[in-house]
C-alpha cells in the first residue's frame, strides 16, 4: 500500500505517478469532474483523499457513535447519548456502529474506545461521533483526534464545550487524579494518600453545599 503524508496536497506530477496515469489524463479527469483539484496560485494540487478514493482506498461510509458514562447508575444517560448521536449523524452515513463504555474518561483501557481505535486502524470507518469531547476522553482530546485523523477518520463533536451535566463524574475524575499523583509522591499504601483523599472529598463536599441555592 502507498504511504501518504497526513492531509498532503500533491503536485500534478506526483499525483500522476501515484495513480499510474499521464499528467494529461489527470488534467482531463479534473475537467470531467472525476477528481477534484485545489488551485494554489497558478498551480493545481490534488488532495490525498481524492487519490485514495480513485485507488479504492477510501474508508467505507461508516460512522461510530461513541457514548460513555462513568457509572452503571448512569445507563439512562448512556442511552440518551446514543439516541442524540443517531439522530444527528445516522442519516449522514450508510452504516452506523454503536460503541459504549462505562468507566472514567481518564481510563485508557475502555473496550469501546479501543474497538473504535482498532476500526480506525483497519480503515473500516470514516468517522467517530461523540456528544461532548470529554465523552471520548477527559484529557488529551487533540491527541486522539490526531490519531483518528491519521487513518482518515473524522472526529465529529456535537457540542464542543465541556459536558457539565454529570458533576459527580467530574468529582470522581478529580479524586482519581489527586490519588494518582499522591501515590507517586508518597507511595500508594501510604496513610498520607488516604488522608489527602479524604481532605479533598471534604473540600469538594463543602463547595457543593455552598453552590446549592438557598431555600426561602
UniProtKB/TrEMBL annotation:
Any single GO BP term: regulation of DNA-templated transcription
PANTHER family linked: PTHR36172, RESOLVASE-RELATED (PTHR36172:SF1)
Source organism: Ammonifex degensii (strain DSM 10501 / KC4)
Pfam short name (any one): HTH_17
Annotated InterPro entries: DNA-bd_dom_put_sf, HTH_17, IS607_transposase-like, MerR-type_HTH_dom, Recombinase/Transposase-rel, Resolv_N, Resolvase-like_N_sf, SinI_DNA-bd
Residues of the Resolvase/invertase-type recombinase catalytic domain: 62-204
Protein name per the record: DNA binding domain protein, excisionase family
Molecular functions (GO terms): DNA binding; DNA strand exchange activity
Residues in HTH merR-type domain copies: 9-55
